[in-house]
């Protein structure tokens, strides 16, 4: 995406988009370019001394950063009862996240509500301001933006409850059917299932002012603790079809199946074995309740059926390096995406998995490990990807290169921006400003909203060019929080 490159000395008190987010009120600050627009390519172009990137305010319908304290390796969006499909501001977001604290006893799970997400797409900046090059105009713009930044009515409100967790949280997932039930993978080697109903109800009932109890860490007893894994792990997933069914995979190449039983879970102590290295991610089939997929450091993707022997029904050599993450498309169930340690990601059509034609798309845009990949819950051809190169990208596989349309665009834009020649036509959006991105999730009830976590906190973003077609309006009603 296009960004303006601006000398840092031009404004009095601006923070770059990459500035660390300190709390729910922190925000990315817009800057008015003092020179011609330039398409800046991460990993290709270098910033000169004194230069910093500023985000284009027209590129986002909403963009804010917030933090719950320590960095979080994993988060999940908690589905709510505010509406299955919501398009009007202000929005409210519920979520859970697990910390990676400096010392093990300091870790916790953050149960939070972010309300007053009040996006207002700005009008285009008048050309007179864009062309202005004086310090006076720059200072005036700075003052206006600072005034907007301090407007209490536009600030999101964070309500947070902290729940003590033994050790760092490697992965956290909320159950679709009962969102207050969450599972965590800890670096202690334990998988735990929690009931956060009381904490979610508490933040739901909170008023317009954030609570002043950030330092209180509540002790809470998990519903189930499983210590049968021989090593820590990261892979965990709830079934979208069978309420309470769970799989967890570890760094010792083993996968265990959890079956719900009254108020607890029965975990099969005999693991599914088929990978030769660490199991990195797991995904249940969106259409078959007994089928799930796994990916591994061994470069393979395996498809499993819990009704058969504990060996894979299918094993695919997907990449030449570690397969870090996978995502099974819930709107086009034949499609599965995988992200690799070499920075590439691929899309496969499972109907042709035994043929060479199974790979329908392969991208090598990112040059560092892929850390997260997820299909949009509202557009079957759209997916989001995060990478260790500090980029979050959004892709639409339905797009193809149109030479005539591209020529018209270049003729129109040549005086404004010099677009790179080698960007894939499927690349819709590039989001930057977060350091060491770890995980992202689309909001299942707010089309176009993405929540991401990184070493310097969370971002909530809604790109302005992501148009969604509402799908799945006949989804079942979710279980209440209370």
From TrEMBL:
Residues 24-35 have a biased composition (Low complexity). Keywords: Repeat, WD repeat. WD repeats lie at residues 272-314, 363-405. Residues 1-35, 123-156 are annotated as: Disordered. Residues 133-151 have a biased composition (Acidic residues). It comes from the Eukaryota. Residues 1-19 have a biased composition (Basic residues). The keyword Secreted does not apply. Coiled coil: none annotated. GO terms for biological process: ribosome biogenesis. GO terms for cellular component: nucleolus. Residues 51-117 form the Histone-binding protein RBBP4-like N-terminal domain. InterPro entries: Glutamate-rich_WD_repeat, Histone-bd_RBBP4-like_N, WD40/YVTN_repeat-like_dom_sf, WD40_repeat_dom_sf, WD40_rpt. Belongs to the WD repeat RBAP46/RBAP48/MSI1 family. This is Histone-binding protein RBBP4-like N-terminal domain-containing protein. The gene is LOC123086390.
């Amino acid at each position: 995406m296009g960004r303006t490159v601006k000398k840092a000395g031009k404004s009095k008190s601006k923070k770059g988009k990459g500035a660390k987010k300190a709390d729910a009120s922190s925000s990315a600050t817009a800057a008015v370019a003092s020179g011609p627009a330039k398409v800046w390519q991460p990993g290709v172009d270098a910033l000169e001394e004194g230069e910093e990137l500023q985000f284009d305010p027209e590129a986002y319908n909403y963009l804010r950063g917030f933090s719950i304290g320590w960095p979080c390796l994993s988060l999940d969006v908690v589905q709510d009862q505010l509406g299955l499909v919501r398009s009007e501001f202000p929005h409210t977001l519920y979520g859970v996240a697990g910390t990676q604290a400096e010392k093990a006893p300091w870790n916790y799970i953050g149960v939070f509500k972010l309300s007053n997400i009040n996006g207002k797409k700005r009008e285009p900046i008048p050309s007179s301001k864009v062309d202005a090059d004086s310090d006076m105009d720059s200072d005036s713009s700075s003052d206006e933006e600072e005034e907007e930044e301090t407007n209490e009515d536009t600030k999101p409100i964070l309500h947070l409850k902290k729940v003590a967790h033994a050790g760092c949280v490697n992965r956290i997932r909320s159950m679709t059917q009962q969102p207050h039930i969450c599972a965590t993978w800890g670096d202690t080697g334990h998988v735990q299932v929690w009931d956060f109903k009381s904490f979610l109800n508490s933040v739901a009932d909170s008023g317009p002012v954030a609570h002043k109890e950030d330092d209180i860490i509540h002790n809470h007893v998990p519903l189930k603790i499983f210590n049968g894994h021989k090593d820590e792990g990261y892979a965990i997933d709830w079934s979208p079809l069978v309420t309470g069914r769970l799989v967890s995979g570890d760094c010792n190449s083993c996968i265990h199946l959890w079956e719900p039983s009254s108020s607890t879970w029965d975990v099969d102590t005999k693991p599914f074995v088929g990978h030769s290295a660490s199991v990195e991610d797991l995904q249940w089939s969106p259409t078959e309740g007994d089928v799930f997929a796994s990916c591994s450091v061994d470069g393979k993707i395996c498809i499993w059926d819990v009704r058969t022997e504990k060996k894979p029904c299918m094993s695919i050599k997907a990449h030449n390096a570690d397969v870090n993450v996978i995502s099974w498309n819930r709107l086009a169930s034949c499609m599965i995406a995988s992200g690799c340690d070499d920075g590439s990601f691929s899309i496969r059509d499972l109907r042709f998995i035994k043929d060479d034609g199974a790979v329908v798309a392969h991208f090598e845009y990112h040059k560092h490990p892929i850390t997260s990949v997820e299909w949009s819950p509202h557009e079957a051809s759209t997916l989001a990807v995060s990478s260790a190169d500090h980029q979050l990208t959004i892709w639409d596989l339905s797009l193809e290169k149109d030479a005539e349309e591209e020529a018209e665009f270049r003729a129109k834009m040549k005086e404004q921006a010099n677009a790179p020649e080698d960007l894939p036509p499927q690349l819709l959006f590039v989001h930057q400003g977060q350091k060491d991105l770890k995980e992202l999730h689309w909001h299942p009830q707010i089309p176009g909203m993405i929540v991401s976590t990184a070493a310097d906190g969370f971002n909530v973003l809604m790109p302005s060019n992501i148009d969604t077609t509402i799908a799945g309006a006949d989804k079942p009603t979710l279980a209440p929080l209370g």
